[in-house]
């Protein structure tokens, strides 16, 4: 395997549970040293992907390789090079957090005791408490520390920060940046969009077991709209009829000027700016598309087609 | 953990009473809904056991002579140690034997049920965080504990009515039967109160149940000493909550006043439980939580270390319980020698061989093997639990293969079960040596071997369940328990039921020669070991091929 061959390579992966097609022709490609955000709503197939990657489930069709090997057949060899943080961690109730961390580090082979202690310190974990008394956040810290302290090339993180408070999430982001600096690859699944946005080199969006979008954040932004809030001395009504302007609304009309909000397709921003400039811009705010909007455009269509309210998948930003 | 002392000083004030109990009725309905199967099963089980005891006695000992012979087992100090003060054994009746020999075990079940139920609805709820969800509603501070206590008391009342009915069906006098039943109810009250206190003390449900369980164990040990010392018990017996109800001497003296003790203590304990609960926050405990090790012992970092950690708790529990049972059965040896001459015909049929004592112990070895089989099945079910809870998946995300994971757990389980077999043999041997008046020493090695000789049957059961765990994991536990249950019934009643040979052959535990009364027959030993080994191999192959924790 050469330097640039992918760490994870999945092609037309299919996994069925009875009548449910959990993975439906899934394609995924992750390069060495890449932090890959894996976005999707609950039940989209994120955890199933992780478990196929771990060789715990066997795909029904398609090709999957980790470091050029078959994860089902070569599970043990591959697991020496990766660490996994499950989404909903159940730990052994009468072990302490410290014991669980040590057990995993020893099972994985060599580890750095100083690194372990440093991570325990940074995540502010009391390693002497029995895991049955830990909250979900603390159980997640245990799994994270045992993964991050290990000397591995790939981290598979399944919604790793769902139970962490904002302070700890900041620590998590720092640590992932460090891991990236050390050249590790990370597959980071989440439905918390801001986190993926902050950490990922590339993003894949999965819906109903199929990757619907994949690319860098800026590539994905091309496919969506920028929101512009502008105050102009002259009326901006003339923009309303342009084909690449959407959801145009005038919020207030005063003697000082008009306040207008609209969305513009990503590749027509220049034209809008040309039109706006002669109108006398008093203030302007442009929001880049958030991942909420990205998701809403993909799931919004799908859900409205099924007659489900959009509100169910929308996250408050 | 913050203590609100000021609040505690005027805790159960009458004015606040109304508000602290808000929602009790709703919570009670909710608990009844959640417990509809579990509690019904306990209550019915206790009732049925009462019916069984009351009626089986009359079948085993039909004539007065037979009754005298059976009573001998319960009248001597060792018998009393295990069963109670032994009132009325000098002129035995069926009802007196029922009360002296068996009722204590109904009481222990009632005590366990009361502790489990109270803890499950109080501390378990707090530990899982569900209590917070409940308490965020219009629910008073005392509502959960009150509803849990009402549930336990009502269930115990139903159990008491069933026990009373069992006595009446057995044609026993009404007053004595009422005393037996209300005595059980009083035991339930006492231990519900105990659990109401321990639930406040420990942050973990295991700790709370453990403390209350220790009180039951201590109560049993104290009355062991008191009841063994003299007929009717001595002063020591009056310090045990389990003994108080038996001191009513049902069917013999029929005295009611000893029941004042458990009822009064229960009231004090319940009051204490409420008072303590106001001194702590939701989810907190009065006793500080003990901290564990900050880093693991080196042994934990291997598949075997992990497997040992997972299985040792269960194996240790089974091991201690079965060792004590083995000791107890062994210590009946002298009684069996004494009673050998005039035992009823049915008993003689269950116990083969001319030497009654060895026959009895050979039979007990089979009986114990069924329980050791149960320990094996419950260990295998624990593995299934590890898988269902996602811990197996997490462990195997480290470089631990499916075969290594399963193999390590099976190794620990098989070694543990073999160790229990040895311990049971040792227990029976030591018990017999200690109790026999003449030549006890010569039987020790035979009884030890009798315990160990049951290993092939247990191994075969583990093999069968393991093969299912590999290929049809959903069936494994159920099939295992069916084999255990069938083995238990067949070992106890098989000969009496006169079933066809083919049905008897399905009993895994019925194939080995009943050493030491029969010579060892190596054919079934070989066949059973082969079933075990092949079953384990098939199971490992299956586990290696199938997906882990497939939803």
What does this molecule look like?
The complex is a heterodimer of chains A (317) and B (551). Chain A has 2 domains: 8-216, 3-Layer(aba) Sandwich (Rossmann fold); 225-288, Alpha-Beta Plaits, CATH 3.30.70.120. The two termini of chain A are 42 Å apart. In chain A, strands 5-6-7-3-8-9 form a 6-stranded mixed sheet, sandwiched between helices. A 4-stranded antiparallel sheet of chain A has the order 11-12-10-13, with helices on one face. In chain A, strands 2-1-4 form a 3-stranded antiparallel sheet, with helices on one face. With 317 residues, chain A is α/β, with parallel strands linked by helices. Chain A is built from 10 helices and 13 strands. In chain A, α3 (97-108) runs parallel beside α5 (136-148). Chain A is 31% helix and 29% strand. With 551 residues, chain B is mostly helical. Chain B has 2 domains: 22-277, no CATH class; 300-545, no CATH class. In chain B, 73% of the residues lie in helices and 0% in strands. Chain B is built from 25 helices and no strands.
């Amino acid at each position: 395997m050469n330097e640039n061959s992918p760490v994870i390579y999945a092609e037309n992966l299919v996994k069925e549970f009875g009548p449910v097609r959990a993975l439906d022709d899934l394609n995924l490609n992750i390069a060495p040293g890449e932090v890959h955000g894996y976005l999707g709503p609950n039940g989209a197939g994120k955890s199933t992907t992780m478990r196929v990657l771990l060789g715990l489930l066997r795909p029904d069709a398609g090709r999957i390789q980790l470091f050029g090997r078959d994860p089902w057949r070569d599970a043990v060899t591959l697991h020496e090079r990766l660490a996994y943080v499950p989404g909903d961690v159940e730990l052994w109730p009468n072990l302490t957090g410290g014991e669980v961390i040590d057990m995993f580090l020893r099972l994985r082979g060599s580890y750095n005791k100083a690194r372990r202690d440093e991570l325990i310190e940074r995540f502010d974990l009391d390693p002497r408490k029995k895991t049955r008394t830990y909250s979900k956040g603390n159980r997640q810290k245990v799994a994270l520390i045992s993964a991050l302290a290990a000397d591995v090339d790939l981290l598979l993180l399944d919604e790793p920060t769902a139970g962490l408070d904002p302070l700890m999430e900041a620590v998590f982001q720092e640590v992932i940046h460090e891991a990236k600096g050390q050249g590790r690859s990370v597959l980071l699944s989440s439905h918390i969009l801001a986190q993926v946005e902050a950490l990922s080199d590339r993003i894949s969006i999965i819906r109903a077991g199929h990757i619907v979008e994949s690319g860098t954040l800026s590539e994905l932004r091309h496919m969506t709209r920028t929101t512009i809030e502008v105050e102009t001395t002259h009326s901006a009504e003339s923009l309303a009829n342009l084909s690449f302007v959407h959801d145009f609304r005038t919020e207030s009309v005063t003697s000082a000027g008009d306040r207008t909000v609209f969305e513009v397709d990503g590749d027509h921003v220049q034209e809008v700016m040309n039109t706006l400039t002669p109108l006398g811009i008093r203030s302007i705010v442009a929001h880049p598309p958030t991942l909420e909007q990205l998701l809403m455009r993909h799931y919004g269509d799908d859900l409205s087609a099924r007659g489900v309210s959009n509100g169910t998948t929308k996250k408050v930003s | 953990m913050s203590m609100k002392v000021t609040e505690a000083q005027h805790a159960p004030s009458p004015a606040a009473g109304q508000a602290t109990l808000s929602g009790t009725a709703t919570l009670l309905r909710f608990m009844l809904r959640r417990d509809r199967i579990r509690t019904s099963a306990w209550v019915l089980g206790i009732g049925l056991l009462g019916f069984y005891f009351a009626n089986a006695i009359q079948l085993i000992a039909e004539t007065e002579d037979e009754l005298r012979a059976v009573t001998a087992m319960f009248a001597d100090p060792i018998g009393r140690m295990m069963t109670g003060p032994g009132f009325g054994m000098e002129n035995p009746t069926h009802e007196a034997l029922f009360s002296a020999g068996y009722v204590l075990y109904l009481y222990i079940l009632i005590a366990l049920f009361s502790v489990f139920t109270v803890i499950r609805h109080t501390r378990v709820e707090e530990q899982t965080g569900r209590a917070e969800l409940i308490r965020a509603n219009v629910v008073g501070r005392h509502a959960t504990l009150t509803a849990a206590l009402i549930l336990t008391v009502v269930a115990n009342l139903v159990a008491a009515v069933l026990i009373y009915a069992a006595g009446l069906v057995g044609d026993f006098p009404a007053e004595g039967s009422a005393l037996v039943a209300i005595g059980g109810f009083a035991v339930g009250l006492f231990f519900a109160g105990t659990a109401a206190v321990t639930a406040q003390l420990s942050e973990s449900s295991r700790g709370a149940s453990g403390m209350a369980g220790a009180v039951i164990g201590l109560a049993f040990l104290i009355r062991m000493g008191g009841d063994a010392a003299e007929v009717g018990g001595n002063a020591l017996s009056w310090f045990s909550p389990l003994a108080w109800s038996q001191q009513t001497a049902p069917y013999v003296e029929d005295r009611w006043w000893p029941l004042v003790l458990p009822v009064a203590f229960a009231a004090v304990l319940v009051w204490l439980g409420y008072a303590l609960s106001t001194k702590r926050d939701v989810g907190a405990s009065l006793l500080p939580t003990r901290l564990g090790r900050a880093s693991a012992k080196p042994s934990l970092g291997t598949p075997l270390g992990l497997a040992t950690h997972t299985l040792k708790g269960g194996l240790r529990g089974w091991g201690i319980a079965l060792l004590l049972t083995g000791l107890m059965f062994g210590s009946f040896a002298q009684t069996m020698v004494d009673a050998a001459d005039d035992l009823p015909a049915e008993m003689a049929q269950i116990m083969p061989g001319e030497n009654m004592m060895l026959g009895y112990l050979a039979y007990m070895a089979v009986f114990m093997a069924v329980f050791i089989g149960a320990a094996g099945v419950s260990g295998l079910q624990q593995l299934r639990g590890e898988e269902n809870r996602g811990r197996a998946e997490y462990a195997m995300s480290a470089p631990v293969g499916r075969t290594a994971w399963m193999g390590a757990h099976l190794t620990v389980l098989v070694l543990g079960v073999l160790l229990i077999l040895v311990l049971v043999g040792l227990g029976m041997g030591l018990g017999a040596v200690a109790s026999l008046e003449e030549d006890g020493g010569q039987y020790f090695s035979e009884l030890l071997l009798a315990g160990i000789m049951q290993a092939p049957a247990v191994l075969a059961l583990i093999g069968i369940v393991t093969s299912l765990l590999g290929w049809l994991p959903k069936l494994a536990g159920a099939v295992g328990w069916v084999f255990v249950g069938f083995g238990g019934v067949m070992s106890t009643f098989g000969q009496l039921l006169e079933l066809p040979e083919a049905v008897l052959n399905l009993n895994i535990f019925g194939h080995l020669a009943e050493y030491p009364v029969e010579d060892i027959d190596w054919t079934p030993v070989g066949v059973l070991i082969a079933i075990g080994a092949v079953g384990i191999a098939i199971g490992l192959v299956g586990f290696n091929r199938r997906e882990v924790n497939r939803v």
